[in-house]
Specification:
Elements (H helix, E strand, L loop, with lengths): L6 H23 L10 E8 L16 E6 L8 E7 L3 H9 L13 H4 L2 E6 L18 E8 L8 H12 L7 E4 L2 E9 H4 L11 E3 L16 H10 E2 L7 E6 L10 H4 L3 E3 L12 H11 L3 H5 L4 E2 L3 E6 L14 H19 L5 E5 L18 H10 L3 E4 L3 E5 L9 E5 L8 H4 L8 H7 L12 E6 L15 E2 L26 E4 L4 E2 L6 E2 L6 E7 L2 E6 L1 H18 L1
Parallel strand pairs: 6-16, 9-12, 10-13, 10-14, 11-13, 14-17, 17-18, 18-20
Antiparallel strand pairs: 1-3, 1-4, 2-3, 5-7, 5-8, 6-7, 15-16, 19-21, 21-22, 23-24
Helix pairs in contact: 1-2, 8-14, 10-11
Length: 561
């Protein structure tokens, strides 16, 4: 469109739309109880097709840029902007200046106004930040609301809690403060939450929450004599040695191969839950983080001198959480880090600490995080890793202050696993099995896209085949030195600076039957580790979980050296 031919008409349309948005907001404001009324309103500004908005101009002169939807093939770029009522006249004047022609120059305010196509009052659905379609507004569900405390005078989370109490909307017990944003979660219909627009609890973004879920692993059993023999040969590191802090399902603190290295440092970030491991995954990760692959020490008769120890903070219970009081991964992880650091003050802190978290949220198309997009969880991890202070209150956890390099944290996170792999998924047109292409096409899982953490993928050198006659003719799927068939990558990510994983460690293999109709894991192509049960003290683990625990162990060994 030739803007020079119709600048006056263009300006008139924009100013008229801005004033209508203000009038609509004023009318809606009259329905809001006095204590909750905001002194401004949100507008949606859409760019002309194929053009970009001047975002810095929308975040100045009293305006606040709330969020941006980047341009795609299906839609133009748009921005949500908070406009105080007292700034409407100023913004109108800036738009009208586009009709003025300075001598020998471009029209005034051209960078701001030229690419604006549409202005309208922002609605609840305009704040949706996910690639997934907006859920039906009549559907009652959990919503993740992001707030900017700078655009209102009162605390938006406190206002949300008051409004939720009046409307009987369940709200999660703890909110999270990440940088300049406050994040809270509420259960209601989208139709109900439209009442927030124009209040002191107007969100700047709305997302789909990620709540902590169940993990799965594989167990095996070996004889008690092997465990007892190794326990007699182990010399634990002193309490002030470096530690790997395992954030998982807890730990079996009475396991003879773990107890002397834990020094009682087992905690839970989950209210009303003990530090015990009901699921097993945490105990498996603890064994790998301490010993690496246990197969070598178990089969040896040599002394084992450890130079680092363990901590455990439960962030998952291995079962579905209370649906009425869900907790986000971001909140639980921040609380777990704070728990480990605070508890260590009374017992004497370790010389160094490495956090190991073999937990991801399962990926699917259209879900935030899988395209390298920052999420609440990855933002919290980035802040924690950069040395941001964690401050816990009764109703929120704050990640505040400038990053402090001297307080930075090494957080090791799994890249995520390929699950349910079958031969038909990886068979090429020529008929051979190619798992590497699947690894390239399977994108890392949240929160491995965080920039400041160490994301761990898996390769394998485990290519043995069981001697059991029932495995005659089987072969390993991956050759020695290749990516593990379980490992995800960032190869398929486009348009983002994310290159993950940062490191790969042993993640095990899969076995292929002679007819190439079955892919199966086995202890022989998995990493041996500790088990949670009294009668199953030895287990096995694989995939990026075992790789993550090994990477954390490697870091602890480096600290100790």
């Amino acid at each position: 469109m030739d803007r020079s031919a119709d600048r006056q008409g263009h300006v008139s349309r924009l100013v008229g739309a801005l004033e209508r948005a203000r009038d609509e907001s004023v009318d809606a404001r009259d329905e809001i109880p006095e204590p909750y009324r905001a002194d401004g309103f949100a507008v949606r500004i859409e760019a002309a097709a194929g053009h970009a908005l001047k975002l810095e101009a929308l975040d100045s002169s009293g305006l606040t840029l709330m969020s941006v939807h980047p341009r795609t093939d299906q839609r133009p770029e748009d921005a949500l902007v908070w406009v105080p009522y007292e700034k409407v006249g100023d913004l109108s004047r800036r738009i009208k200046q586009f009709t003025e022609d300075p001598d020998g120059g471009s029209p005034k305010q051209a960078p701001l106004v030229a690419n604006m196509e549409k202005v309208q009052r922002a609605l609840f659905e305009h704040l949706w930040q996910e690639d997934d379609p907006l859920p039906p507004l009549e559907e009652h569900r959990w919503w993740e609301l992001w707030f900017d405390p700078q655009i209102v005078e009162s605390d938006p989370v406190s206002t949300l809690r008051e409004l939720a109490s009046e409307h009987q909307w369940p709200v999660t017990e703890v909110a999270l403060a990440v940088g300049e944003r406050l994040v809270a979660h509420v259960h209601a219909s989208g139709e109900d939450l439209q009442a927030l627009m124009g209040t002191n609890a107007t969100p700047v973004e709305i997302r789909r929450p990620t709540f902590a879920q169940e993990l799965h692993s594989v167990d095996r059993s070996l004889q008690h004599e092997l465990v007892d023999n190794l326990a007699d040969r182990v010399e634990a590191a002193p309490p002030d040695a470096p530690v790997v802090c395992v954030l998982d399902t807890g730990v079996n603190q009475e396991h003879p191969l773990l107890k002397t290295s834990l020094h009682g440092r087992t905690h839970s970030a989950l209210p009303h839950h003990t530090a015990a491991d009901r699921h097993g995954h945490g105990t498996e990760m603890a064994g790998i983080a301490l010993y690496g692959d246990l197969a070598g020490p178990l089969e040896s008769s040599e002394p084992v001198v450890l130079t680092h120890g363990l901590e455990s903070v439960k962030i998952l219970d291995g079962v579905t959480g209370d649906p009425s009081h869900p907790r986000t991964y971001a909140e639980v992880t921040a609380n777990a880090v704070a728990t480990a650091e605070i508890e260590a003050l009374s017992a004497g802190p370790p010389r160094a600490r490495v956090f190991s978290m073999a937990v991801t949220d399962q990926s699917r198309d259209g879900k935030n995080g899988v395209d390298g997009i920052p999420t609440l969880w990855s933002a919290a991890l980035d802040a924690l890793a950069a040395g941001t202070d964690v401050v816990a209150h009764d109703d929120r956890i704050e990640l505040i202050g400038a990053p402090d390099p001297d307080a930075s944290r090494l957080i090791v996170v799994s890249a995520g696993n390929i699950r349910g792999l079958e031969p038909l998924h990886i068979r090429t047109p020529e008929g051979r099995l190619d798992h590497l292409t699947m690894c390239d096409l399977s994108r890392i899982e949240e929160p491995a896209q965080a920039h400041n953490i160490l994301a761990v993928g898996a390769f394998t050198e485990l290519t043995g085949v069981p001697e059991d006659p029932s495995f005659a003719g089987f072969r390993p799927l991956a050759e020695a030195g290749q990516l593990s068939p379980f490992s995800r990558t960032s190869v398929a990510l486009t348009g983002t600076p994310v290159v993950k994983p940062d490191i790969v460690m042993e993640g095990g293999n899969l076995l292929v039957d002679p007819g190439e109709t079955l892919l199966t894991p086995h202890d022989v192509v998995s990493v041996t580790t500790t088990g949670k049960d009294f009668f199953r003290k030895i287990s096995s683990a694989n995939a990026t979980s075992s790789a993550t625990a090994q990477a954390a162990r490697l870091a602890a060994l480096a600290h100790a050296a």
